[in-house]
Design a protein that fits this description.
By secondary structure, the chain is α/β, with parallel strands linked by helices. It contains 3 helices and 7 strands, in the order βαβαβββββα. A 7-stranded mixed β-sheet has the order 1-7-6-2-5-4-3. Helix 1 packs across helix 2 and helix 1 packs across helix 3. It binds adenosine-5'-triphosphate and magnesium ion. Adenosine-5'-triphosphate (ATP) binds next to helix 1, helix 2 and strand 7.
Length: 160
């Protein structure tokens, strides 16, 4: 399975998709595509809640990267909207993103083109009426495994 799509009728559904991805992919690189306000940070918040993060989750708009030390390993949330040049990522420690056991969630990955590590899963969020549409693509073996899990049970997220 290499792609999956679904409707997200409200922000809770977007967070549930994030929580489902948290359970389906423990480490790797997730690219989050979508216009301003598409729901990328909402998805990240749902994912981090499922990983046991209880504090505030805001987009690192100015610092570009926010690390979370979770019980199941490091998660890095990047928001590259304000990245001037992809080369700046080297100063932010981009090589840490591809270390074993690390999960990287990247908003506006287009801005880091050529410097970011290979992506396992790309999530595309778009406006659809008052809600959103999600389209998820897998680009690796772990990514494909995550998609199977997502397809099997994303509506059933009993622990959030
Ligand atoms: N499925 C949904 N249906 C309706 N509203 C949603 C949905 N998902 C998220 N939202 C709402 O959309 C708004 C913007 O969400 P969010 O900040 O996550 O977007 P973003 O893609 O991170 O934007 P930016 O590019 O500015 O960082 C929030 O108010 C959020 O609650
Ligand atoms: Mg955001």
């Amino acid at each position: 399975m290499t792609e999956w799509s679904g409707e997200l009728e409200d922000a809770d559904a977007t967070a549930t998709l994030g929580a489902t991805i948290a359970r389906a992919l423990s480490a790797g690189v997730v690219a989050l595509h979508g216009d301003l306000g598409a729901g990328k940070t909402t998805l990240v918040r749902g994912l981090l809640r499922a990983r046991g993060v209880s504090g505030a989750v805001r987009s690192p708009t100015y610092t570009l990267v926010e690390p979370y030390n979770t019980p199941a390993g490091m998660v890095y949330h990047l928001d590259l909207y304000r990245l001037g040049d992809p080369e700046e990522l080297y100063f932010l420690g981009v090589e840490e993103l591809s270390e074993p056991g690390v999960l990287a969630l990247i908003e506006w990955p287009e801005r880091g083109c050529g410097v970011l590590p290979a992506v396992d899963l790309s999530v595309h969020l778009s406006h659809q009426g008052d809600g959103r549409r999600a389209w998820v693509q897998a680009h690796s073996e772990p990514g494909r495994g995550a998609l199977e899990a997502l397809d099997a049970g994303w509506r059933f997220a009993p622990d959030i």
